Amino acid sequence: MRRITIPELSLVALVGVTGSGKSTFARGHFASTHVLSSDTFRAMVADDENDQSATEDAFAALHFVAGRRLRAGRLTVVDATHVQREDRAKLVALAREYDVLPTAVVFDVPLAELRDRNRNHRDLADHVIRRQHEALRRSIRHLAKEGFRKVHVLSTTDTEVVVEYEKAY
Ligand code: CTP
Ligand code: MG
Questions:
Q1: ipTM > 0.90, yes or no
Q2: How far apart are CA 127 and CA 133, in angstroms?
Q3: Ligand 1 pocket, 7 CB below 6 A?
Q4: How does 25-60 read in b/e, with b if 16+ C-beta sit within 10 Å?
Q5: Measured from the CB, is residue 40 less than 6 Å from ligand 1?
Q6: What's the predicted TM-score (pTM) here?
Q7: Which ranges of the chain would DSSP assign to H, the alpha helix?
Q8: Tens-place pLDDT, residues 149-164
Q9: What is the 18 CA–ligand 2 centroid distance (Å)?
């Protein structure tokens, strides 16, 4: 069993390629109200969770809500791929603005497994999965430098994960 520790008041970024298990993990480990998902916000602003043209508006709305939650002292988990540094930087900035600790939970899944899952998941073009996977692999070692105070990298062998909370220090 793998235990991971998350500061009681933190902004948690789930980081992983499409199909890596972010939403499954979020459902199993956090209350639904803690989780802000890019899909949900795309649907909210554009009636379609897959509408990529709605991404900018969806994230503007998501970051607004995240800010209000953090201001009220509520744990907030952001379910989006976060494989690009710019996307993560916005969350680190938001966490700093509200003086909470940015935490990254990374889903490090082998490319072959991602390709398999993709067929029954979003069925995206192979190059999309490959590029996201490359971006993720390059990102992992930079996360601490980017400002994430805790970085937990989960692999496919971590089938049983327990999330424990610690008081902010
Ligand atoms: N899945 C799996 N094993 C896991 C986690 C997920 O086989 N340990 C499967 C799920 O059942 C689902 C697919 O992989 O069919 C994608 O999982 P999901 O949690 O939806 O992945 P996300 O990372 O949320 O993908 P996306 O970025 O596309 O939302
Ligand atoms: Mg998801």
A1: yes
A2: 10
A3: no
A4: bbeebbeeebbbbbebbbbebbeeeeeeebbeebbe
A5: no
A6: 0.97
A7: 22-29, 38-46, 55-71, 85-97, 111-120, 126-140, 143-146
A8: 999 999 999 999 999 9
A9: 7
